[in-house]
Amino acid sequence: MNEKAMMDKKNSGTGRLAGKVAIVTGAAGGIGEATARLFAREGAKVVDADIKEVQGQKVVHDIRQAGGDAFYFAHDVRREDSWQSLMEETVSRYGKLNVLVNNAGIIKIADIEDTTLEDWQAIMDVNATGVFLGTKLAILTMKSNGELCSIINRSSVAGQVGDKTMFAYCASKGAVTLLTKAAALGCAAKDYKIRINSVHPAYVRTDMTKGEAAEVGLSEEEYMEGAKSIHPIGVGEAIDVAYLDLFLASDESRWVTGAEFNIDGGLTAQ
Ligand SMILES: NC(=O)c1ccc[n+]([C@@H]2O[C@H](COP(=O)([O-])OP(=O)(O)OC[C@H]3O[C@@H](n4cnc5c(N)ncnc54)[C@H](O)[C@@H]3O)[C@@H](O)[C@H]2O)c1
Q: Can you tell me which atom of ligand 1 is nearest the CA of 77?
């Protein structure tokens, strides 16, 4: 299916998330924005949770214009009080929570010798602590609602294999890979109807890869051209990852928990 056909399909949702309430973090741009828009199209009520208010409000405006239901919440994934307020506001407005996509993330291009303690802490705070807090607070919110629930944690191929140029990022995404499995098993042992899985994209053109290009002194085009050469079927688009999120958010994936989902154009098959 070409990009236009993908977008046409996206424009005609089939209600795969009808009746669901979903929070997507980092939904003001990039992959999170694509996921928030697709979830709304598929019938979910969506909370766009991000530190970037102007961009987040724009996404919500577009969703509402298209007939969807969404609101923006100024949210910092690093702060437990922010998570508590987000959960309270979601339940107050929509009555429950079924899906959380822990998508917000940051990166810095540096090997171990060039990684400062401040860089390490900043990346771990957003990418690892943010996902821990989100997963925990979502379980507490979801566990008594009696409905099938799903938590989707955004890792990366860099959470499965090492990349010397992304030292702290690899460590943070590796933490996401295994905290996901441990939390999934904890929910299963308690008979909660909550599944938890991790999603591992390779290169997807977003503001994050734009920033990476700038860090290494390349234009965005040059950087993505270089990235293409290591992906057997090329680099991805945000919407590609959003469709995997959609499957994991829906009850179609009800027998799936504690699993790693690669979406990487064949990168890790090599
Ligand atoms: N783009 C890629 O190639 C790629 C590959 C693998 C994994 N990922 C992961 O996918 C996720 C989304 O990345 P993207 O490429 O869309 O990046 P992006 O920079 O386009 O979007 C990230 C979003 O997270 C938000 N955010 C950052 N810090 C936050 C905080 N403290 N609290 C709340 N929101 C915060 C930003 O405001 C932004 O809207 C990240 O976790 C990233 O690590 C991206």
A: 32
The rounded Å distance from CA 208 to ligand 1 centre is: 7
Which domains can be identified in the chain, with CATH numbers?
Answer: 10-201+237-262 (3.40.50.720), 205-235 (no CATH)
pLDDT in tens, the chain (270 residues): 455 555 555 556 899 999 999 999 999 999 999 999 999 999 999 999 999 999 999 999 999 999 999 999 999 999 999 999 999 999 999 999 999 999 999 999 999 999 999 999 999 999 999 999 999 999 999 999 999 999 999 999 999 999 999 999 999 999 999 999 999 999 999 999 999 999 999 999 999 999 999 999 999 999 999 999 999 999 999 999 999 999 999 999 999 999 999 999 999 999
Going from the Cα of 105 to the center of ligand 1, the distance in angstroms, rounded, reads 4
Ligand 1 atom closest to the CA of 29, numbered from 1: 39
From CA 81, how far away is CA 79, in angstroms rounded?
A: 6
**Strand ranges (E), 57-181:** 69-74, 99-102, 149-154
Evaluated on CA atoms 58, 83, 100, 18, the torsion sign reads negative
Q: Which mutation among 137, 208, 239, 245 tests ligand 1's pocket best, with the greatest number of atoms within 8 A of CB?
A: 208
Distance 106 CA to ligand 1 centre (A): 6
* Antiparallel, parallel or unpaired: β 194-201 and 260-263: parallel
pTM above 0.70, yes or no: yes
